[in-house]
From TrEMBL:
GO molecular function terms listed in the Swiss-Prot or TrEMBL record: nucleic acid binding
Protein name: Transposase
Position of the signal peptide: none
Organism of provenance: Corynebacterium mustelae
Sequence ranges assigned to domain Integrase catalytic in this UniProt record: 134-304
Pfam family, one: rve_3
Example of a GO biological process term: DNA integration
InterPro entries: Homeodomain-like_sf, InsJ-like_HTH, Integrase_cat-core, IS481-like_transpos, RNaseH-like_sf, RNaseH_sf
Domain of life: Bacteria
Length: 392
């Protein structure tokens, strides 16, 4: 190590005490060339000239140029104005797609912070504290949920979306005045036609997704019947625990941030155009850190798709009713109300129905005498019995 004290000592050792260069080199354990260098510096500039000089190169080949800094801040500003994620990872991806040298995310963060483009955030919960689940393959699990926004006239609009758990690929997004159970089933049918049948779904416990908290009064709703018919496993989050559907909940934050940056839609049609544009960007241009910086589309198409397991869960339940004046009872199946013909002679009688999926056996509650058997025909409201007790 060359200290200013040693360099000056070498000079004094030679100049003031009369030692030779060779003796100085041996005494201070340096090369003779270095002793000559120190002496020449002293002769040229005095004591100040023998101070150790910086080894830092005159030019730093890795220094960030002003043009790159400008590009980084421009990307940050444009993404923020458009309502998109504008973090260092996203900016790095845009640089890569433009064919530019990609800086580290820490360097990008320093640049946008120095430019005053980062707002301080409160301390967040550590990511390590979350228990994470991720499907191993595309179509292994689809998350679905409904969120809302408002049109320019104040009308509330509901938005139904489906997200592939493995890839975060946005499979479906559509706006409705009110999203119904029929809409959910129609969406699933459309999705299966486009992407194939998933192995499972994950939703909250809203009535459009499950009738599990309806007291079994109507049995399974249309979505549940549809899933069972296609051998799709249904998963529901724990009540009051939206973190179970964390990916789609986080997606809604991204969606609403983007919508907030757009002109407020005046009609549902205009809103749908905005949602379609967002879906295209989200799926094909927005890289995701959890996907090794791939886009959801790249992650969804990278691996083979999962498929349903062979399974069928029959619906078993009972229902009590009173035969009306027209000789009918009512039964809700797959979210739709049907009228079952029993016969006018039994008007006013209390009956018990045993339901095994679409097959219904009806008997008098008082005696247990079997009156009719029905198989639900979903194309008709009134259901004729396939067998009827004709002894009365």
């Amino acid at each position: 190590m060359n200290s200013p004290h040693r360099n000056l000592a070498i000079v004094r050792y030679v100049v003031d005490q009369g030692h030779t260069v060779a003796e100085a080199a041996q005494h201070f354990k340096v090369s003779r060339q270095w002793v000559y260098t120190i002496l020449h510096r002293f002769e040229a500039g005095g004591e100040a000239a023998v101070q150790p000089r910086s080894k830092k190169p005159c030019v730093n080949p890795r220094a960030v140029t002003d043009s790159v800094r400008h590009e980084i801040t421009t990307i940050r500003i444009n993404l923020t104005k458009a309502g998109f994620d504008a973090g260092p990872d996203t900016i790095a991806s845009h640089l890569r797609r433009q064919g530019m040298h990609v800086l580290s995310t820490s360097t990008i963060r320093r640049i946008i912070t120095a430019a005053g483009l980062v707002k301080p955030q409160p301390q967040k919960r550590p990511k390590s504290s979350y228990v994470r689940f991720e499907a191993a393959l595309p179509n292994e699990c689809w998350q679905a949920d409904v969120t809302y926004c408002y049109l320019a006239n104040g009308q509330r609009v509901e938005i139904l979306d489906f997200l592939d758990d493995h890839s975060r690929y946005l499979l479906f997004i559509k706006a409705y005045p009110i999203c119904t159970g029929v809409d959910v089933v129609d969406a699933m049918q459309q999705l299966i036609s486009t992407y194939g049948t998933p192995q499972s779904t994950l939703t909250d416990n809203g009535m459009i997704f499950t009738a599990r908290f309806a007291g079994m009064r109507g049995g399974r709703n249309g979505f549940e019947v549809f899933l069972n018919k296609h051998h799709i496993q249904q998963k529901n989050g724990r009540p009051g625990h939206p973190q179970t559907q964390g990916k789609i909940e986080r997606f809604h934050q991204t969606l609403k941030k983007w919508l907030k940056a757009q002109p407020t839609a005046r009609t549902i049609t205009q809103l749908q155009h905005q949602l379609d544009a967002f879906a295209k960007y989200y799926n094909t241009q927005r890289p995701h850190r959890a996907l090794a910086k791939r886009t959801p589309y790249e992650a969804y198409t990278h691996l083979p798709k999962a498929s349903p397991l062979t399974r069928t869960d029959n619906e078993w339940r009972t229902r009590k009713d009173k035969v009306d004046k027209a000789g009918r009872v009512t039964l809700r199946y797959a979210g739709r109300l049907y009228h079952l013909g029993i016969g006018r002679p039994y008007s006013g009688q209390k009956v018990t129905m045993v339901i095994v999926d679409k097959h219904i056996t009806t008997a008098l509650t008082a005696t247990g005498e079997i009156l009719t058997e029905h198989v639900i025909d979903e194309t008709r409201d009134y259901q004729k019995p396939i067998w009827k007790n004709t002894q009365k």
